Amino acid sequence: MRVVIAGGHGQIALHLEKLLAQRHDAPVGIVRNPDHEADLIAVGAETVVLDLEKSDVDAVAKVLEGADAAVFSAGAGPGSGEGRKDTVDRGAAVLFADAAQRAGVRRFIQVGSINADKADDPGFDPVFAAYLRAKRAAEEDLKARDLDWTILRPGRLTNDSGTGQVKIAEKVDGGEIPREDVAAVLLALLDTPATARRTLELVSGDDSIADALSRI
């Protein structure tokens, strides 16, 4: 399986690329900074240097040609302002979905946020609220597309070692989840076509990933 991953140097993406390579799939990570290529190569991924904030649909579609699936796991990251939350968390996601359709890649998995539907709730920091609005807009755009999409909304991300024990449902109470477990769930979603056109929330729990997905 050839899987193209936007945000290829992110921690979740690096875990996913390693998992794909370990089972002899072909992960391709899109990175903005060429200095990051070595980290992807070290986990077994092919690299493409491309800035999704500055690229166009034809250039991204060329990267996606021949892929079996696309995973959007990019984000502006900590320290970025409201503007980049929009250009990356929304704009780059929309561009990546446009390119997937142009390239004929139907399977599309997008990493969102568990609170994306609460972006307008009072009390959020303005930058975090902008992040949630960008994620929500990217979800709404994706849901309108003729793609076999799945949106995965993880809870608060941690760098703890993965346990493989999760809770997955259309709605879950707030919680946290190791990035390593998010990557393992993304891998399982790639293998589970029946999750297409579903929005799923994810936190740590008591079920194995396989059991959790079998119940949704």
Automatic annotation (TrEMBL):
<dbReference type="InterPro" id="IPR036291">
    <property type="entry name" value="NAD(P)-bd_dom_sf"/>
</dbReference>
<dbReference type="Pfam" id="PF13460">
    <property type="entry name" value="NAD_binding_10"/>
</dbReference>
<dbReference type="InterPro" id="IPR016040">
    <property type="entry name" value="NAD(P)-bd_dom"/>
</dbReference>
<feature type="domain" description="NAD(P)-binding">
    <location>
        <begin position="7"/>
        <end position="193"/>
    </location>
</feature>
<protein>
    <submittedName>
        <fullName>SDR family oxidoreductase</fullName>
    </submittedName>
</protein>
